[in-house]
Amino acid sequence: MSSDTKTAASYEEGLRGASDKVAEFHEPKSALKRLQHWLHMTPSAVPMIVLIAAIIIFGLKEENFFRAVTLSTILQQLVIVGILGCAQSLVVLTAGIDLSVGAIAVFSSVLMGQFTFRYGIPAPLSIALGLAAGTAMGFANGWLVARVKLPPFIVTLGTWQIILAANYIYSANETIRSSEIAAEAPALQFWGYSIQPGGVKILYAVFLMIALVALLAYVLRHTAWGRHVYAVGDDPEAAELAGVRTRRVLIQVYALAGLFCAIAGWVMIGRFGSVSPSASTGQLGNIQSITAVVIGGISLFGGRGSIVGMFFGALIVGVFEMGLKMVGTDPQWTFFLIGMLIIIAVAVDQWIRKASA
Amino acid sequence: MDQKGIGMTREPLLKARGLVKRYGKVTALDHCDFDLMPGEILAVIGDNGAGKSSLIKALSGAIQPDEGEIMLEGRQVRFASPLDARASGIECVYQTLAMSPALSIADNMFMGRELRKPGIMGKWFRKLDRPAMEKFAREKLNELGLMTIQNINQAVETLSGGQRQGVAVARAAAFGSKVVILDEPTAALGVKESRRVLELIRDVRARGIPIILISHNMPHVFEVADRIHIHRLGRRLCVIRPQDYSMSDAVAFMTGAKVPDEAATAA
User: Fold this and answer.
1) Does the CB of B131 have a partner CB in chain A at under 8 Å?
2) What number is the average pLDDT over the span A242-271?
3) What is the C-alpha to C-alpha distance for residues B10 and B75, in angstroms, rounded to an integer?
4) Which of B102, B113, B219 sits opposite A230 (nearest CB)?
5) What range does the domain containing A56 cover?
6) Do the beta carbons of residue B63 and residue B54 sit within 8 Å?
7) What total number of domains does chain A contain?
8) Counting beta carbons within 10 angstroms of the beta carbon of residue A152, is it exposed (0 to 12), middle (13 to 18) or buried (19 or more)?
9) Residue A24 lies in a domain
């Protein structure tokens, strides 16, 4: 019996005299491999390179492109997509998808407007209520995903229709005119105001968007909660076993996304002047934000990518639209090229992932 | 140690009575009992599907038993999640390792118990104390001597299987204050790395912390275990001492080829 134990350990006798060196790996460090590894570490690099290349090409083609007015117009046009993209990024990082972002934004803006004009609630309070309503809609998405365990695509496909329909029914499809808002509740249009250093108009909304991107980038990178968002998207079971309250994180993510959408709704009032339940954002906001997220290098499978990448992705779309318009091509080329970019972005994402193998 | 100390060692540190866990028609745990004495290495062995994993998961809070009770230091505990078990000082290395591949080694080691910066940055901006976390992680990995990691910030997915297991073991050993549970800790490791893990297991016991070791590797089990809990058909078949039986006896018990005599069950 005891001899049994002895023989058990004796097979390791062969270790005596074995090399003490830990296995060393001589990887062929070709330039391509190193590039792959670097991209693996810095996921926002690809969209940044594309963005810089696009700016240089359009700048060479069209001398007016580098004028401050052009650049400020590009920024102006992407504020809503940029903020919706923040919401979308959060959800996509958890391996989900949110098709209802645009609908939440439109309905929140309608609620802010109607609360003020139909019930006479002071504008700042209406805005707070609108933001709370957007958060609640996001919370509902999160609850269905995390507690009822429905796939995010299905949940938000449903809530997209529900919220948009509720929006039309509640507002009776009435638009609140810009002049009325400017006269009675200018707070609703706050983000449409601008500073004009040297005659170049920069909307407050642009600063808001940049601040929100910076805030989310900080939260995702430097707080425990941010790390948990990545962990949940990466491998939810592992995260749960490692001590992350995955369901709570998921619900928080969707609720926060709802809040960001409502902020985008508030910004919409400033951008368009009026409150319109039939704003195109309701139908297109989700596709535009997903486009920015994908081109920005955030993996649809969750856990990988950065919010700054999404911002570059939104900028790429903005630069393409503006640049191609200035060059004077058929606007359909914009969508043609953006479609190609989406496919290339995902292909690059797949290639980068192989760095880990 | 005085009289009282010796007397205390008779009382199990972690005890379970009558655990039942059903998944639909399958009964994974069938009125299972379990005892872990202070300061011992208890191996749990059993054939595939015997319910070892369910038992471990019940003890570490990953599943909630349908019936039965778990006592830690004589007090009844009910773990609603692995977080609860961890808060009570029970750390577990799961077979799947429970790591987030895209996150760094330090992030993984501190998942769910991150350190925050002191002062305003930590309190109001909830900023992580990366330098402190990295220093701690590096120390623990060095202690383990399992690997030569150049970069503590590298993503776990860029590590080899053995290195990943090393990180998971280091995490449990670093934070476990009452019980450390290791589910197949040497399964992905080479001969040398396995040896280090076995040494680590002894180190942890030397610190007075008992260990539950689940393993299919009989030589390892017979080498380090103080007692062996043999699991069969969802319940504890018997507990034996490695000195009293041979490996083939143990295998015979767990496969049902041989029935242990009464004396063994009491050990």
Assistant:
1) no
2) 95
3) 16
4) B102
5) 44-350
6) yes
7) 1
8) buried
9) no
Residue of A nearest to B147 (CA): A22
Topology of domain B39-64+74-266, CATH: Rossmann fold (3.40.50)
Which among A223, A355, A356 has the least Cβ separation from residue B127? A223
The residue type found at B137 is: A
List residues bridging with B179 in a β-sheet: B90
pTM for the whole structure: 0.86
Residue of chain B whose Cα is closest to the Cα of A6: B223
Helix A45-61 to helix A31-41 angle (10° resolution) is 100
Task: Judge whether A307 lies within some domain.
Answer: yes
The tens digit of pLDDT for each residue in A47-74 reads 898 899 989 998 898 888 888 888 889 9
Give the start-to-end residue ranges of the domains of chain B: 39-64+74-266
Q: pLDDT tens for residues A154-180? A: 999 999 999 999 999 999 999 999 999
Search chain A and give the residue with CA nearest B122: A223
Among candidates A330, A322, A337, A331, which has minimal Cα distance to A64?
A: A322
CB pairs under 8 A between A and B: 108
Q: Is the ipTM of this complex over 0.85?
A: no
How far off is chain A from B75, nearest CA to CA, in Å?
23
Q: Is residue A34 part of a domain?
A: no
A299: alpha, beta or left? (left if phi > 0; alpha if psi -120 to 50): beta
Decide if A8 and B222 are in contact by the 8 Å CB cutoff: yes
Residue at A282 is within a domain: yes
* Distance from the A250 Cα atom to the nearest Cα atom in chain B, whole angstroms: 15
Judged on CB neighbours under 10 Å (0-12, 13-18, 19+), A117 is: buried
**By percentage, how much of chain A surpasses pLDDT 70?**
91
User: Which of A230, A243, A355 has its CB closest to that of B103?
Assistant: A230
Residue A161, amino acid: Q
Return the CATH number at A180. Answer: 1.10.3470
Whether the Cβ atoms of residue B107 and residue B100 lie closer than 8 Å to each other: yes
Beta carbons of A242 and B243 less than 8 Å apart = no
Q: DSSP character for A175? A: P
